Amino acid sequence: MKLNIQVLQPHQLLDPANKTLLHNINDLINDAYSIHGHPELDGSYHYQALYKERRITCEDQLVHELGESGSIAVCTDNDLNEVPELVHRIEKANVYYTSKYGQVVAVASLKPWGGKKTVLFAKARQLAREGNGASSVNDIDLARLSQQELAQQKRKSETWDWEVSACACVNYPRYRGQGLMVQSLDALLNKLTRRHNELKAAGDPRGSLKIKLWSSALVDSDNPQYWLRRGFVNEGEPDLAPAGLWSSVRDFEIQTLSKVLE
Length: 262
Ligand SMILES: CC(C)(COP(=O)(O)OP(=O)(O)OC[C@H]1O[C@@H](n2cnc3c(N)ncnc32)[C@H](O)[C@@H]1OP(=O)(O)O)[C@@H](O)C(=O)NCCC(=O)NCCS
Known about the structure:
This protein has 7 helices and 12 strands. By secondary structure, the chain is of the alpha+beta class. It has one domain: 3-Layer(aba) Sandwich (Aminopeptidase). Strands 1, 4, 7, 8, 9, 10, 11 and 12 form an 8-stranded mixed sheet that branches. Strands 2-3 form a two-stranded antiparallel sheet. A two-stranded antiparallel sheet has the order 5-6. Helix 6 links the parallel strand 8 and strand 9. It is globular, with a radius of gyration of 20 Å. The structure holds coenzyme A. The site of coenzyme A has 18 residues, from helix 2, strand 8, helix 6, strand 9 and helix 7.
């Protein structure tokens, strides 16, 4: 493996030279988020589609999600052949690995924390209860409610808050569980820490706050445990959302986790 991790700003994703790269990143995220499963008692894994829509529905969605100050770490394996098939083949005792996502093997991003979704989810549950059905949940003014809730949380916050988001690693044993996400996140945090130091030196009040990382993890998936193993702690109880919200085909719970960087 010839691994390389680059940290890109959202506007760089829009560079025409990065068109294929962005496409591969989107594909990887969509595949990684499209199935979640739970282990059966016999050790087999039960997969089910949880969402009606893909995680990324248009090519420049990530750019909007990350906003002006977010960033994305893209881990590539320069040993990977760029063949659009999900196979590896063995030729003359040499193993040639090929991937569906070009050379992209993992991505992680950081963006300003979007806030715990307690109020938003409660409103969505109320609408669902009022009998308007799952489709009405989509009608909620998500952005407005999220903004209000975030503003309230920000007023109370004494930390500089960042959300770890859109994390994905290709689902091949060669790459999953090999520390690629940890390394991608470290690359993002190195940049963030440098920016934090610059703010401090410039007398910006954010420079004197501690950096706090946040993550939202689907309960019943491996993700809450993944972040707990990375030193995150649960922020209160999980929030329950009704089917229909975020195109989910069933009710779901999100565990919010956080970690203050020392
Ligand atoms: C969650 C997800 C992104 C993790 O990606 P990953 O690259 O496999 O994660 P990492 O390899 O960094 O995980 C670290 C693990 O690798 C192991 N590891 C092996 N070599 C390592 C190394 N050199 N450095 C660090 N960790 C290493 C660690 O022991 C650790 O194991 P543990 O979690 O049991 O403690 C991936 O499972 C995924 O794509 N899931 C589907 C998408 C999704 O749900 N994303 C949302 C996440 S909230």
